[in-house]
Amino acid sequence: MNFSSKLLEDAVNEFSKLPGVGQKTALRLVLHLLNKEQEEVSNFGNAIIRLRQEIKHCTICHNISDQHICEICTANKRDKEVICVVEDTRDVMAVENTGQYFGVYHVLGGLISPMDGIGPSDLFIDSLVQRVATTPVKEVILALSATMEGDTTLFYLYKRLKDFQIPITTIARGIAFGGELEYADEITLGRSIVTRVPYENSLIK
Ligand SMILES: [Zn+2]
């Protein structure tokens, strides 16, 4: 692409680094912003800068948060003794959107994937075991995607947690999660949280 302006070229290059955005789309977005009021574009830029500079991760559940402890972990009405284990923030949002879950979360920050060189120590697994060992917990719900990585992680977590003698449950497999979740799937996800089953049952089948 031949640009008439270095400023234009720089902006297009930055946008085209985003996932799924090619140079043509980047150019369209940049030209769109150029037509906006100065203040609107400043708000746009500031939101991204503040996001990166100020965002925190909850020290209890590792979810993305504005505070050191997130709103879910501090909410009085949430049952702190039920922990739903998920891969990332999108999954927390998906489960929250169902309106069917009233416990707290533990965000792993990924799934075990030997192919990608991601092992248990790369994830927030030790801190989950620590939570279960040091705070009263009456159930751990493993809500991970039905992929090979999800299954590997489920089994590993089960091995790490089973000696604590608390119910370890899982949602129905094959449920769409996080990024791919659409409204119809939210209903299914909500139902599968309500009808979760002991993880041992899924091992026998
Ligand atoms: Zn939290």
Quick recap:
The chain is of the alpha/beta class.
Report what the structure shows:
It contains nine helices and seven strands; from the N terminus they run αααββαβαβαβαβαβα. The chain is 46% helix and 13% strand. The model has no long low-confidence stretch (mean pLDDT 91). It folds into two domains: 6-54, RecR Domain 1 (Helicase, Ruva Protein, domain 3, Orthogonal Bundle); 57-204, Dna Topoisomerase Vi A Subunit, Chain: A, domain 2, CATH 3.40.1360.10. The chain has 205 residues and is of the alpha/beta class. It has helices at 6-15, 23-34, 38-54, 71-74, 89-98, 126-134, 148-161, 183-194, 199-204; strands spanning 56-57, 64-65, 79-86, 103-107, 139-142, 168-170, 197-198. The strands form two sheets. A five-stranded mixed sheet has the order 4-3-5-6-7. The structure holds zinc ion (ZN). The site of zinc ion has 8 residues, from helix 4.
Note the main attributes of this structure.
Dna Topoisomerase Vi A Subunit, Chain: A, domain 2; 205 residues; single chain; 46% helix; binds zinc ion; Helicase, Ruva Protein, domain 3; two-stranded antiparallel sheet; alpha/beta; 13% strand
Question: Can you lay out the helices and strands and say which pair or pack?
Answer:
Elements: H1 6-15, H2 23-34, H3 38-54, E1 56-57, E2 64-65, H4 71-74, E3 79-86, H5 89-98, E4 103-107, H6 126-134, E5 139-142, H7 148-161, E6 168-170, H8 183-194, E7 197-198, H9 199-204
Parallel strand pairs: 3-4, 3-5, 5-6
Antiparallel strand pairs: 1-2, 6-7
Zinc ion binds at residues 58, 60-61, 63, 69-70, 72-73.
